[in-house]
Amino acid sequence: MSISQVIKTNVLKIRAPDTNKKDNYLSKLYGREVNLSYLLIIVALYLVATANIGFFEQVLTVYPFGQNIGFILSITGLLFGLMWLVLQLLCYRPIVKPVLIVLLITAAICGYFTDAYGTIFDTNMLINSMETDQAEAMGLFAPSMVIRLLLLGVLPAFIISRIHLKRFTWQRSILQKTATLILSIALIAACLLPFGDQYASFFRQHKEVRSYANPITPIYSMIKLGQNYVDELRRPDTFTLHATDAKRVAPANSINNSVKPKLMVFVVGETARADHFGLNGYARNTTPLLSKQSDLYSFKDAVSCGTSTAYSVPCMFSYANQESYDIDTAEYNENVLDTLHKQGVNVVWRDNNSSSKGVADRVTFEDYKSSDTNPNCDVECRDIGMLDGFDKLVTSGSSQNDTPKDTLILLHQMGNHGPAYYQRYPKAFEEYTPVCMTNELSKCDAQSVINGYDNAIRYTDYFLNNVIDTLKPYEQDYDVVMVYISDHGESLGENNIYLHGLPYKFAPDTQKHVPAVIWSPNSNHIDADSLSSMVNAPVSHDFITPTLLTFFGITTDEVKAEPTFFTMTH
């Protein structure tokens, strides 16, 4: 053997152990089995730390760290808890690696665009991304994006692909999955409950901030796109008609022409809760003007159809009841206003809120959120402005040569819309002080929040009293009545819960028990005894549709034998 061969052999012998050591080290690293539950915790922490820089920048802009240390830590824990929960719901052993790899790549890409451009990956952005052509897509590429994608997306994805997962019996796997789901939900609750007041304003006033959370927002948006597609498939091909057998029933005294036309003002209240109405026994007299009105009936046990305006308002005028109502198909169904309009009733909806939520799409609609139409605007337009030009409003459905028509005027209030209760009334109505003067309810003590809310109730009292006084001059020529009922209630800090909108089954009574008030003079052919007998009985939004039809003398089998707030004497 030559000297060179000897040297080469010895070198190989020297190098061989090093190579074996390296191979053994990598095989031990990749060959080690990892518990799936631990892996999901690690990935959740990793995503919170690397994909949410933009999210925390937005949070700190609204909540400076020095003044909100506890809340910032709570948000961090909440984001981790949500991330952990989402991963558990998406990841199961047969598909866990592909799912995690896709999420890591997605988080790296979305995180880059969120941090670099402030991009929010909502449904519109996803649609826009899918419609982007190759040239536009290439224009977005940058060296920093490639580096971030490789380091924070591809590298951890590669590591995930090489990991071996521990195998357990199916019984133990189910037990482990159940335990970790419970722990993640408990963590979310533990982060939410101590700061319920701050989260109430955070979720309502800073919706755009939470949209920066990655990859939760992209996942939610993708699911939403799929849901929208499914909803599109299941939507009715035709508009569903209701009460097709409806007909007007002439009263007995119409033969001698003594019958008067009907005039109802229906006030759709906003965010008012029954137990803060003085009429219902509240310790504060928040309804001083209404309490002096005669012929007034306040229903003590009224409940709403839902806990939000978007849900409740269409439900209030639907032919479905609370149990059968479907918000996804409500806009494809006629409501009671359509029936009244078809039967010749002059129906006018005046709105000082967000909109009629589709209820008034086929009747006269007037927007009173602008000073162009509402003469009573300061920091915002006031409900009282909806009474402007009332006489013209009553006669708008009849020409000068016609006899007055049956008329239904609906007034949709701004009412007690939160959380800025202090803005819901003019300064003259600030009876209870001090008042929480911010949208951030967490910065105020509980009593100042309640004070602002109660002051807003006093303004509703003033508004409803004016509606009644406006109607009184019409008593001689019309059968007049005012109906007021709120769309839903409100939480004011009880059990650290604020505002409204919780799922109906879990929502506290304060979000479902609403004030319902009817002013009914003796001259309008409404049976006063029937009203008196109902004020302490359970009533609900389900009573509205049959009551409207009853008052205007319209019958249909669709609401036959359904309960009403009152009966007629003819």
Please explain how this structure is put together.
The protein is an alpha/beta fold. It folds into two domains: about 30-230, no CATH class; about 260-560, Alkaline Phosphatase, subunit A, CATH 3.40.720.10. About 45% of the residues lie in helices and about 10% in strands. The protein contains 18 helices and 14 strands. The chain has an eight-stranded mixed beta sheet with strand order 7-6-8-4-9-12-5-13, with helices on both faces. The chain has a two-stranded parallel sheet with strand order 1-2. β10 (about 490) and β11 form a beta hairpin. The longest helix is centred in the first third of the chain and has 29 residues, at about 5-30. Mean pLDDT is about 90; it is low at about 10-15.
Adjacency order of strands in the biggest sheet? 7-6-8-4-9-12-5-13
Structural class: alpha/beta
Largest sheet: 8 strands, mixed
**CATH class of the largest domain, please?**
Alpha Beta
CATH topology title of the largest domain: Alkaline Phosphatase, subunit A
How many domains in all?
Answer: 2
**Strand proportion:** 5-15%
In DSSP terms (H or I, runs of 4 or more residues), the helix count works out at: 18
CATH-level-2 architecture of the largest domain: 3-Layer(aba) Sandwich
Radius of gyration: 32 Å
Shape: elongated
CATH superfamily caption of the largest domain: Alkaline Phosphatase, subunit A
Task: Give the uncertain stretches in residue-range form.
Answer: 11-16
Estimated helix fraction: 40-55%
How many beta-strand runs? 14
Q: How far is the N terminus from the C terminus?
A: 126 Å
Mean pLDDT: 88
